[in-house]
Amino acid sequence: MKHAKLGFYDQQKHVYLEIPVVTPHEIVNCIGNISIKKGQPFVHAHAVLSDQNGNTKAGHLLEGKVFAAEVHIVELLGKKVERKFDAVTGLSLWTI
């Protein structure tokens, strides 16, 4: 990653606390899904990023600019996966 913004979800305030990554980092792992939220495709991903010394930062991937990456996508067959707002968590969670 050239730069990124990670997030940690504050469960009491129902907001993401931002973790800026302003220097180049290697993508150690990034996993998530693409589903539908409010009628539009929505990417939900978590990432682990490593700097040149092996120090890592991890969290919900809010944004980033990728230098290079390999991507593997698998389509889930069956019922439509859609996200709906959940008042308890403050998040848009899957409804199946």
Topology of helices and strands:
Blueprint: E1 3-10, E2 15-21, E3 26-37, E4 40-50, E5 56-65, E6 82-86, E7 91-95
Parallel strand pairs: 3-6
Antiparallel strand pairs: 1-2, 1-5, 3-4, 4-5, 6-7
Report the total helices.
0
Reading off the top of the CATH hierarchy, the class of the domain at 3-33 and 41-69 is best stated as: Alpha Beta
Binned, the helix content reads under 10%
What would CATH call the homologous superfamily of the domain at 3-33 and 41-69?
Answer: Hypothetical protein, similar to alpha- acetolactate decarboxylase, domain 2
CATH topology group of the domain at 3-33 and 41-69: 60s Ribosomal Protein L30, Chain: A
Q: Please tell me the CATH architecture of the domain at 3-33 and 41-69 by its name.
A: 2-Layer Sandwich
How much of the polypeptide forms β-strand, as a percent range?
over 45%
Total strands: the figure is 7
Gross geometry: globular
Structure overview:
The chain has a seven-stranded mixed beta sheet with strand order 2-1-5-4-3-6-7, with no helix packed on it. It has strands at residues 3-10, 15-21, 26-37, 40-50, 56-65, 82-86, 91-95. It has a domain at 3-33 and 41-69: Hypothetical protein, similar to alpha- acetolactate decarboxylase, domain 2 (60s Ribosomal Protein L30, Chain: A), CATH 3.30.1330. It is globular, with a radius of gyration of 15 Å. 0% of the residues lie in helices and 60% in strands. It starts with a strand and ends with a strand. The relative contact order is 0.27. It is an all-beta fold and 96 residues long.
